[in-house]
Amino acid sequence: MAEDPGVSEVVKQIDKACRESGFFYMKGHGIPDSLVKSVANNFFDLPNEEKVRIKISPAAGYKGYQRIRENVTKGIPDMHEAIDYYREVKEGMYGDLGKTLEGTNQWPSNPQNFKEPMDEFIRLCTGLLTLINQDDDITALQIYANGLYESTLHRVINNSPRFRVCTAYFYETNFDTTVEPLETCIQRTGFARNSERAVYEEHLVKKVLNNFIPELLI
Asked: pTM of the prediction?
């Protein structure tokens, strides 16, 4: 595959996009738009009292539905609503630090067919692309790339009279992984270590604990 000129060109384009823009669009990936769009639209069309049945909370391991202005980015409440799912963390799986995310994902009973297409979407994404999550202090991809790659703050402006649905998938490292610069990236940056190593569980728990307005989670 590495000798395929087409593949090499795509790799160069992705590398350039990650260095200069921090994101890129991919098309022709084989995941149909219709896979999750219908059930996602049906859920967010529901009245608020129906959606909050799976409301996000510390007791639920910060999994579930978040209302508008409940999530915070750089200290500013976000004008979006969402459902957060994580790889489920069993009790005691990662010690005291892991307790923050212990619990099972909350799936809505309405629409009834919500879970199946979401599971299929996750399965397809896992084999397609790796996306690394970010927050204000640490970006795993930046550390792996030793500063070669920059992350772009994700903001969306919707000028349409209709709501916009985005199904985002973050394929993250194992909870207890130590993230540190890759040797090839160290070489590309003149053999200087521009990023410190970090433990992913510490990053993720910090992000979750600072990502929501506390009084709204009660």
From this structure: 0.79
